[in-house]
Amino acid sequence: MKFQANLIIATTLSMLTLQAHGAMRQYSATADSSQWFVDRTTRLSCALSHEVPYYGEAIFSATASKNKDLTFNLDMVVRPDSYDFAGLESVPPAWRAGLPARVMGQMKLLKKFDGELTNDISWEMLTELEKGYYPTFYYQDWQNQHDQISVALSSVNFKNAYWEFLQCRDNLLPYSFEDIAFTVMNYKFNSSELTKSSRKRLDMIGEYLNNDPEIESIYISAYTDSYGGRSVNMAMSKKRAEAIKTYMASKGIPEDKIVTDGFGEKRHVAPNDTPIGRDKNRRVVIQISKP
Fold this sequence. Notes:
- This is Membrane protein.
- By secondary structure, this protein is of the alpha+beta class.
- The protein folds into two domains: 23-170, Immunoglobulin-like, CATH 2.60.40.2540; 177-289, CATH 3.30.1330.60.
- Helix content is 31%, strand content 30%.
- It contains seven helices and 14 strands.
- The strands form three sheets. Strands 1-10-9-6-7 form a five-stranded mixed β-sheet. It has a five-stranded antiparallel β-sheet with strand order 2-3-4-5-8, covered by helices on one side. It has a four-stranded mixed β-sheet with strand order 11-14-12-13.
- A hairpin with a 6-residue loop joins β4 and β5.
- Mean pLDDT is 87; it is low at 1-22.
């Protein structure tokens, strides 16, 4: 029994010695090489990126939407070969080495995918960087079972880029492509003039189109209620669709990407014997697609 106890103690000491001597491969930018960059080409997305030499890139990003949530992506040159977790700690810089690291959470490692984190922990990482700390990931190397990996984000040269990123995020549109991809708008009675709320909606769509060069096609279909005669209604619906097309073209969308149809009093979505029903039938439907 005594021999077994001594063997266990010896084995434990050997493992601790292994962990303390050379079982960790560390990746981090030096103070001289640490750089942060902001990509803010449109009002649809913002990215704050940081290269980790000989490892990959760390990217914080936000896209146009109501909440403008953050995501974090650890873009690895060599992606995981298995499923695991990486621990995440906030590590003090070398000049504050006496302070302890703080556990922040963990990140899933999915086979053949980059690492990703959602809004709350992404914000926490940014605030730790703002304080001068180094958010650091730790995980078991999937290529060498004897090694562990640490990947640190350097806070050197962070603050100015972070402020630029926050301003970029604040300027993002408060709606996404999904919010405007399918839209139904309504017209005033016997008129090609949109209602006030529909005009506001159309302006919102126009602002989005002005910022997105990837729009592939726009299909505009217009409808009327059953009052006024079929031929008149057909002409009115086509006029309404063409008016929307003219507006889209003024926002820089090539006209050959815009298709219009006027259906007159066909395809009602509500009864025509009530004012509310007729209001619903006087409509234009805009469908926008991307690659």
